[in-house]
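Good morning C.,

I know you're traveling, so I'll keep this short. The sequence:
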Amino acid sequence: MNKQRRFVAGVDSSTQSCKVLIVDPANGAVVRAGRAPHPGGTEVHPEVWWQAFREAVTQAGGLDDVAALSVGGQQHGMVCLDAEGHVIRPALLWNDTRSAVAARELINEAGDGDEERGAQWWANATGSVPVASLTVTKLRWLADHEPENAARIAAICLPHDWLTWKITGSRSLHDLVTDRSDASGTGYMAREGAQLPERGEYRTDILAAALRIDPSAASEIVLPRILEPFEAAGRGDSAMGWEQIVLGPGCGDNAGAALGVGLDTGQALLSLGTSGVVSAISSHSVSDPSGLITGFSDATGRWLPLACTLNASRIIDAMACILGVDYPEFSRLALSVPDAGGLVLTPYFEGERTPNLPDASASLTGMRLANSDPAHVARAGVEGMLRLMQGALNAVRAGGVVVDRVLLVGGGAQLEAVQQLASTILGVDVEIPRPGEYVALGAAKQAAQVLTNAC
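The tokens, ready to paste straight into the viewer:
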């Protein structure tokens, strides 16, 4: 390693912002950091990510002493490029639900009109049953609603793929690269155990079906080369003065967080953000035709089966708003009573994905004079959120994944009431790591290993 370049950089290009951490690989300490916001909404031009990355790098003090860099990023976002490498239209993000009808169509088509058989086909072929978040459904939406844009597609990539490509300075579509964790969330990467092609390769037949084109035409579309977990993706752009920076393959955000927190087999990562995510390291691929589990890969060569809820910390937000209290007071109220006194919160404030009830709403039942007070309502809110996450955890376990311990992270994990009640309600040992930017930290860990391999 160049003595003048003794640090590595981890990037988290998320839905909300771009975060850059400059990390000392010798001890994992964060030495500098920068952050820049992304605009809201579910449709964003990728150029915004590039500008935010450059701003975050500036805030982090630049990259002059950085020897390696990796990008972790939001999964599933559809980035379509034309033959000159120009973005055809703004990217549709994971949280854009306009392709929900397309998801149902793809399932039914695979089963010749039989939804159950179609779901089984998708689970076997790719490890996941299509939902609106997956890239493959967004491509079907594009083919049906913007055929003129679909016809211009020369390459398709994901947010972190595109940003890594921009950092290299290349204009060749054939220099696009990705990793297994992000590619496994497209809906057109083959699952291990499926029929040909082998694990880690794309199913161009699925791509052709999604875009309603001939398979021979689909094979001409450039898809990012899938790198091994710690394989170098190239070097930075010499025009930016980054030519001495080795680039890692990057990873999807959930895989980056798992790597950052040091998740291992037998453990699950439970993230309580706006939505809730339960992911667990598995030594085998998971196929779930119910669609509750998505069969992703992790950033180390293993697998990361994952269950996601639409509601998590927003449950606490809503209940605290109803009571007119701040978070510390909400937590104090919840812990001031031994239980919810028969109150039960069904916390589907924004519908729900696990279980799959997109049109459901929340309800508070079991009210009596004895429990109609702020303390019992707060307690019901905390218990309702944790029981919802217990359902997601049970879904992962039902896929044959052993979970003996849960690592609890995210904004909702900082509430004292959640910390005290989580183990009892989830029915498993719970550990609460120190708060941190785990996606960016995971990307930095990957960059450090890529650098070691390169040396």
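Safe travels,
E.
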